[in-house]
Write a structure and sequence with these properties.
Blueprint (H helix, E strand, L loop, with lengths): L35 H27 L7 H25 L4 H21 L5 H26 L9
């Protein structure tokens, strides 16, 4: 016995090649709890908040327990600005890279950020380089594993 196939756009019709409950490319869709506006706000609120914490941390390390001065505040806000701009650039560029490049770029960003903070404390530069390379390698390994296990060979997300 033959049944009529529902047309796309009807209450039971889905895109060709997918089953009900799946999105394009056969991926299952999860409900989006937040709206589009919340995602747009979070896209900039999260990096700015992290940048403010990072800038405060860098400024407090830089003053070595001394009084807060205008130059110290300027240093903190310039650090925030540099962090947020670099974060936005890394986020925009990493999206277009394959999983290896994506992981390397985020690892380099994390290692550089830690190395800068650690260098403000006045320790030897060799120590700063070693610690930042260790963090960069750890971030690279973790992200490469995550992208390798959650993407197919073409770089498409698989769940």
């Amino acid at each position: 016995m033959a049944h009529a196939v529902p047309a796309r756009g009807t209450s039971t019709g889905t895109a060709p090649g997918t089953s009900p409950g799946t999105g394009t490319r056969g991926r299952t869709t999860t409900p989006d709890v937040f709206g589009e506006r919340a995602h747009k706000v979070a896209k900039w609120a999260v990096p700015v908040t992290i940048g403010l914490v990072y800038g405060y941390w860098a400024a407090s390390i830089n003053r070595h327990g001394g009084p807060i001065t205008g130059w110290n505040l300027l240093f903190g806000f310039m650090t925030v600005l540099a962090f947020v701009v670099l974060f936005a650039v890394v986020r925009a560029v990493a999206r277009r890279l394959p999983r290896e490049g994506h992981a390397v770029l985020w690892g380099a960003f994390a290692g550089s950020a830690l190395g800068f903070l650690y260098s403000q404390s006045g320790v030897a530069m060799f120590t700063c380089v070693v610690v930042s390379l260790l963090l960069a390698a750890a971030v690279f390994a973790a992200l490469f594993y995550r992208y390798y296990t959650h993407e197919d060979a073409k770089g498409q997300q698989v769940t």
